[in-house]
Amino acid sequence: MSFNQNSPTTVSAGAMMTFNINKIRADFPILQTEVNGHPLVYLDNAASTQKPQVVIDSITKYYTEQNSNIHRGVHHLSELATKLYENARKTIAKFISADPKEIIYTRGATESINLVVSTYGRKFIGEGDEIIITEMEHHSNIVPWQMLCEEKGAKLRILRMNDNGEISIDNFKEMLNEKTKFVSIVHISNSLGTINPVKEMIDLTHEAGAVFLLDGAQSIQHVAVDVKALDCDFFVVSGHKLYGPTGIGFLYGKKEFLEAMPPYQGGGDMILSVNFEKTVFNEVPYKFEAGTPNIAGAVGLAEAIKYIDGIGIDKIAAYETELLDYATAVVADIPELRIIGTAANKTSVLSFVLSNVHPHDIGTFLNADGVAIRTGHHCTEPVMHKFKIPATSRASISFYNTKEEIDVFVASVKKVIKMFS
Ligand SMILES: Cc1ncc(COP(=O)(O)O)c(C=O)c1O
Predict the structure, then answer these.
(1) Which residue has the least CA distance to atom 7 on ligand 1?
(2) Which residues have CB under 6 Å of ligand 1?
(3) N or C: fewer beta carbons within 10 Å in the chain?
């Protein structure tokens, strides 16, 4: 998982040999697309991943043969849809070693964090309490906490990073104190690729008597995650970054926390009984799932997880590391290019700036060659402030990418440099 820019890089056939890349690519119909007369090179996977045919088929099948509302129906289709929806919850739970009762469907990582902030946060965090996040958080793990701090008079404390985009455990230890109530940290940074030392941080957080949320939006698709082994209290995921549909994701929460938290939204399905004097809330996880949920999304997400499981997340991790190492080694020969995010422990993200070209121009010219990267602040403006840059260009890798695609990307970057020099 590590790459040292100063050491020579050998790209072994290792993980690549275990992959039938042609077969994998054939599973993703969109990868056959041509853009501006070139084969699509899709390197915007940190923003959203493409969907394998089995996921697309599962959604089509759901709407063609299985669709109905869930939970209260006694007819065939309602029972079928309920079974699919609840089986999908079991698939998700198994994938991260959780209990299905600890999985709450949400729209994605953003909604999962907002759910925790507005239920756990509102109930258990008060004036003078401290919440720790890092300098590399996505805006979705900054803004909800800022809003809570504003409302409650709590304090948001920021764990800074070094010039490689790494945080220090010693600095973290110094920040923890009896006022620390919550720590909310990104597992893998979307703009830098840094893999944070979260197990150590979770243990330290618990020693300090605080609660830990792990933002897995960029980790679950790249590394194996076992929430029980990690012992995080909450874990948040977006389905669309995990080869599943948009509009679905989940929150994992330890049962004792979920039970102590008030509901997120009121409405149908989250109740056991309602009368005008008193409403009795449903048990977890249903207490947090008001209204008709994204049933087709849950079905598609479970199918995506089965697909990933079928390949093996460890194989995926090894292959993606080889691809990132390869890309890092080839761009190291470009003097005008500076990598932003050079952590010793990183994966899948190559963020960079060119000395003479604005990132938006890079993105536009690469698109002319059929290469899709993302340019901007990647919803991590504090990271841009830290590195004193307005934006980066970000190539983000998936297991369906190839070395040949990295070569096309690098050739296109070189063309842009030449054009602007
Ligand atoms: C690290 C991280 N956290 C949270 C999010 C928010 O995800 P979503 O917009 O799918 O809710 C993202 C999205 O890019 C992310 O990269």
Answers:
(1) 109
(2) 108-110, 138, 140-141, 186, 190, 215, 217-218, 238, 379
(3) C
